[in-house]
Amino acid sequence: MKILLIGAGGVGDAIVKIASGRNFFELMVVSDYDIRRAEASIEWVRNRHGDAVAERFVAAQVDAGNAASMVELCRTHGVDFVVNAVEPKFLPTIFSAAYTAGVNYLDMAMSLSEKHETDPFHKPGIKLGDAQFALNEQWQRAGKLALVGVGVEPGLSNVFARYAADHLFSEIYELGVRDGANLAVFDESGKEIFAPSFSIWTTIEECLNPPVLFERGKGYFTTEPFSEPEIFEFPEGIGPVACVNVEHEEVTMLPRVIDAGRVSFKYGLGDEFIDVLKTLHKLGLDSTRPTRVRSAQGPVEVAPRDLVAAVLPDPAKIGPNMTGKTCAGVLVTGKDKEGRERATYLYHVADNAITMDEFDTQCVVWQTALNPLVALELVATGIWQGEGVLGPENFDAKPYLDLLASSTGYNSKWVAQERLPASPLRHP
């Protein structure tokens, strides 16, 4: 397998570092608009593993907004798979470039949504991923695989849901994705600061759009941002975290494949984060539409959201000043294979101290980067096979989780934790 990685930012850099310990691919072309970032990732591999391993990685300059440049890179290097590791706003161009080049494709976040024009807080408009799923037959006719939504959430969460449906439950009442952490970031003087651990561009998109939910018999519907607050008890020392509804791909992906009464996604944001997001929205700083701004160099056009992203700390660089753990998981409620009531939280935890020590990468981007490599390895070895636009929930979950946890695989533990069926959640 020959891979073209688009983007060497936080997640892309982590993909390179994790991939350096695996042998399922022949070549990885690490590309970025700033080639120095790609070169820095490869230099880390050289320093950690030596020249022989680093030779499997090649740096290249690319413009993720220019399909022709990506097609040319695919053809120059004989690429089999394009891996999209940049912000979702570039997805349509990268998705199209992979199809034009006649290669397979993988991403960790799907095509963006558009609100319902007249009733955005009750009815969905264009949902996350709709634009990609609409091209399924086109990809099938081409005989190529577009493996979409394969990060940690979506991605590993989808795998957990499929595993629960196949092996743990006979009937599923709800697939409730629950994400929480006890992370804290500090400045040089030791004072805690506001510093999102993932792209603020993506975070704004997820958190301020109307959340989508799914219920059997009702279908898809939307609510107000930050709705249905609950306190969820996260494992491994993280503890109780307030979670709210957030727009996320799992809700649009899982009902296509898995029969569940309800599908939801709740994110543990915390009061401060929610207040900041509400303020950004009130001031119009969440807008992606360019605004004309006067500067010393003359008038320039800047999208407010891009400005917010530029002034906040780079999520790829906050690792040394961050403490804590992050947890991604799915609370599945329903009946077990014998028909008894069951509630199981399937989860994966990443500890920042460990990921920094082993990969010089903060835990949130490391956890995101880990999962596409597991999926790519399953495809490379022929265990996962398919054509068209497919999510990880379309494939057998057991080999994925085995490879993730195996000492000869990625040696990263996952847990199926039983909860009290009658009251798996504590509400405020």
What does this entry look like structurally?
It contains 15 helices and 21 strands. It is α/β, with parallel strands linked by helices. The chain folds into 2 domains: 2-107, Rossmann fold, CATH 3.40.50.720; 156-363 and 413-419, Dihydrodipicolinate Reductase, domain 2 (2-Layer Sandwich), CATH 3.30.360.10. The strands form 4 sheets. Strands 7, 10, 11, 12, 13, 14, 18, 19 and 21 form a 9-stranded mixed β-sheet that branches. Strands 3-2-1-4-5-6-20 form a 7-stranded parallel β-sheet, sandwiched between helices. The radius of gyration is 21 Å and the shape is globular.
Descriptors:
alpha/beta; disordered C terminus; 2 domains; globular; 428 residues; Dihydrodipicolinate Reductase, domain 2; nine-stranded mixed sheet; 34% helix; 15 helices; seven-stranded parallel sheet; Rossmann fold
